[in-house]
Amino acid sequence: KVKLLFRIILFRLKIDSKQFCFPCSTQMEKEVQREFIYCSGAATEVLKVGSSHLSGRDVLFLIIPGNPGMVEFYRSFMQTLHSLLGLPVWAVSHAGHCAPPDSMDIVEDASAAAKRDVFGLDGQVQHKLAFLHQHVPRGTALVLVGHSIGCYMILEMMRRDPELKVLKAVLLFPTIERMAQSPQGKVMTPLMCQLRYLLYLPLFLLSLLPHGVMARLVRLMFSSIPDLDPCVLQPSVEMLGSGDCPVNALYLGGQEMRMVLERDNVTIQKNLDKLLFYYGVSDHWCPVTYFQDIRRDFPHGDFRLCEKGIRHAFVLDAGRDVAQMVAEWTRGSLRG
């Protein structure tokens, strides 16, 4: 009945869903490959720009996304990075943060996924390590680029597998400490920890909307961003339409609030020469006080404060600008 109601509304609005396709106009589109795989038993999207096959002697830029961890949000960022450096740039989604084809379930084995807590924070870190071990030749030199909670995951990956050949790790708007105490964390913690289940029904109903209606809602949601990257529109529609992805994102977010507490100073000190941190001047997830604290504690580290007013969710309108900065920062660390 709900689906029938939405179809009637769609007919009366005379919305043609075909007009809501969101092309990303770029001359490099042919170099982009989307793959859906099972990793740690969960559906995973891998976005590859440039070479899709590695020899073990390559340098690979690997993007670890924020939350939600849909890699299509990073398409413009990745394409710009590849065009500037000529190196393969891959991004691996978080487990269950994708809209897989109809032939794939969100997990291979539901009981095994639940036992491993693959959608939780620890499970997502293990998921990234499993991807590296299974899909990237061991000798590959890595430039890891993390965004938001992806920065926490990168530090954990480097701690758990110190044999990874990491040339550089760039941590963008890093949520690596005191998340629940941040200005945004104080607002979101009750929502994602105590009230999360109340959001499941509206999310489910939202996923039943026809594509055209969903697309119109997404456009409305982003209407206040004048320079919005059109490449983020389609993955937004896919995310809301999947049902599973926003639920998994909320679950991960709740664990972030509870588990991202103290900064891992030991791992930072051990890898200080490989790490670059980039903080936002008006970032409510990792405020300027966090930047000041970490810079004071590690006076010889590379900590930078944004001077361009870029938002925490930089992929919305500044992906190309941030890619240009990352390319400049990492050139000196590249080998071969």
UniProtKB/TrEMBL annotation:
It is found in: Endoplasmic reticulum; Lipid droplet. Keywords: Endoplasmic reticulum, Hydrolase, Lipid droplet. It catalyses: a cholesterol ester + H2O = cholesterol + a fatty acid + H(+). GO terms for cellular component: endoplasmic reticulum; lipid droplet. It comes from the Eukaryota. One of its GO terms (biological process) is lipid storage. One of its GO terms (molecular function) is sterol ester esterase activity. It holds the Pfam family LIDHydrolase. Its EC number is 3.1.1.13. SUPFAM superfamilies: alpha/beta-Hydrolases. InterPro entries: AB_hydrolase_fold, LDAH. Belongs to the AB hydrolase superfamily. LDAH family. This is Lipid droplet-associated hydrolase. It comes from Cyprinodon variegatus (Sheepshead minnow). The lineage of its organism: Eukaryota, Metazoa, Chordata, Craniata, Vertebrata.
